[in-house]
Amino acid sequence: MNNKELSLDITFLFPNTMSTYGDSGNILALKKRCEWRGVEAFIHYCDIYDSIYPSDIYFWGGGQDIAQEIVSNNFSQQKIDFLNNEVEKSKVFLLICGSYQLMGKYYIDSNGNKIEGLGILDVYTKSSPKRMIGNVVIETNKKLKLGNKKIIGFENHSGQTFLGKGVEPFGYVKIGFGNNGFDKTEGVIYKNVIACYLHGPLLPKNPHLTDYIILKALENKYDSNVTLQKLDDSLELKAFNTLLNRLKIQS
Ligand code: GLN
């Protein structure tokens, strides 16, 4: 199938209420890498009082505890059911930090306050006195079939997340704290949901992950024979390897 006949709808959830950590660059990376192949990408911005635009990819970034509480308190059951159905229909989700916590069962903040999650992912999170900040390098879960390529990112959270039986880790930390600083896991995967603690320009830094997300969304919308035209990623690769070298990790 020619890439030029394809299009994707991408919804950016809570772009104003939960967007304190520079995660919006991920939307730009998705859009550009679609467009460079002639795949049309339509971006929809849906905040608290908007209905959620049905899409092929949902992106939802991180935010402070207070923003998480506001979003949690304003989530209708209808919206929770809608997102749950989308997850079960194998729509693609990328969730970062605060939204990862909110898609889980609950988050206990630093005041001991319980913020209800949507209960879609089998995880729970508790704030800890130690803030987990810094560069992260992970090896991805083999199930994703991302090859040996690592993922690099930057974490900044106090929440420690623990995984239930219904989900698997997105990856395993080589450097960084990951989900909780204990068990070496980072993030979760469930169906086509990827949730992780990797803030900022996660997708610009990891073009292989961006393409994985685009491909999964196209396969889910059209068929599993879609292939993506190769792009020249030499600059991205140089930046990727420079960071790995600095962290003394082999690519
Ligand atoms: N409540 C969060 C925490 O663990 C969210 C922070 C974030 O999204 N970076 O600190």
Automatic annotation (TrEMBL):
Q: Any idea which GO molecular function terms this record carries? A: carbon-nitrogen ligase activity on lipid II; glutaminase activity
Q: Which PROSITE patterns match?
A: GATASE_COBBQ
Q: Which keywords fit this entry according to its UniProt record?
A: Cell shape, Cell wall biogenesis/degradation, Cobalamin biosynthesis, Glutamine amidotransferase, Hydrolase, Ligase, Peptidoglycan synthesis
Q: Does the keyword Membrane apply?
A: no
Residues involved in substrate binding = 131
Question: Where is the CobB/CobQ-like glutamine amidotransferase domain positioned along the sequence?
Answer: 10-206
Task: Please give the biological process terms from Gene Ontology that the record holds.
Answer: cell wall organization; cobalamin biosynthetic process; peptidoglycan biosynthetic process; regulation of cell shape
Q: Which residues form the active site?
A: 97, 199
Judging by the UniProt lineage, the source's domain of life is Bacteria
Pathway(s) per entry? Cofactor biosynthesis; adenosylcobalamin biosynthesis; Cell wall biogenesis; peptidoglycan biosynthesis
Kindly give the CDD domains that the UniProt entry links to this protein: GATase1_CobQ (cd01750)
State which Enzyme Commission number(s) the record gives.
6.3.5.13, 3.5.1.2
Catalyzed chemical reaction(s): beta-D-GlcNAc-(1->4)-Mur2Ac(oyl-L-Ala-gamma-D-Glu-L-Lys-D-Ala-D-Ala)-di-trans,octa-cis-undecaprenyl diphosphate + L-glutamine + ATP + H2O = beta-D-GlcNAc-(1->4)-Mur2Ac(oyl-L-Ala-D-isoglutaminyl-L-Lys-D-Ala-D-Ala)-di-trans,octa-cis-undecaprenyl diphosphate + L-glutamate + ADP + phosphate + H(+); L-glutamine + H2O = L-glutamate + NH4(+)
- Family to which the UniProt record says this protein belongs: Belongs to the CobB/CobQ family. GatD subfamily.
According to its UniProt entry, the function of this protein is described as: The lipid II isoglutaminyl synthase complex catalyzes the formation of alpha-D-isoglutamine in the cell wall lipid II stem peptide. The GatD subunit catalyzes the hydrolysis of glutamine to glutamate and ammonia. The resulting ammonia molecule is channeled to the active site of MurT.
Assembly mode: Forms a heterodimer with MurT.
HAMAP family registered for this protein in UniProt:
Lipid_II_synth_GatD
Record-given protein name: Lipid II isoglutaminyl synthase (glutamine-hydrolyzing) subunit GatD
Which source organism?
Answer: Desulfurella multipotens
Recorded name of the encoding gene:
gatD
